[in-house]
Amino acid sequence: MLRFLEQVGILDIDLCGPSVPHLLNIENSDVHQCPEGWVPVYTDASQTLAVMSIGFLLKNRDDAIIWRGPKKTAMIRQFINDVCWKDVDYLIIDTPPGTSDEHITVMECLREVQCDGAVLVTTPQAVSIEDVRKEITFCKKTNIKILGLIENMSGYTCPHCKECSNIFSSGGGKSLAEYAEIPYLGSLPLVSNKQDIIQLDSMQSILTRLTTH
Q: Among 65, 122, 160, 171, which residue is least crowded by beta carbons within 10 Å?
């Protein structure tokens, strides 16, 4: 991603299932404070990728967040307003599935900021497609531009015989994009190593389409 963008921030607002620290191998990092607010966790010495997640604030990765809506809303507002994001050129907000308090709070907080839009992610099976259909409706009703849709977990290529098996079916994301008349950005296969995903040609193609949008 950093080959395409300059200073990038990732805000993980999936409060009940914060997975971004694990995916980026920065789970044991600590959040510090400065006069401007919380300092995000950087993944590299050049500080080109800044990350904030409630996962950094948990004493144990097995701890559960058992909060009602108002407390979730307050936490998300604090992440957006009180974290020192001033150096980032792009802020990517990773939301949980659905159309819940988290999504409404982000939308309200960003009213005064020019939001480029939303990238929707689905898997090929029908149950996921149904959820994303509601996300599309949410974006249209709240005037959030949809930059495109990605189909994740689209096929698994055997490392031995190289045959691709569509474990969760295939083509659901593309069909939904055509039905909703939104851009289809591409598909990502299942991979056994999370570090391999950025090397995929399909991922590079998706990032190119987004950054030249």
A: 160
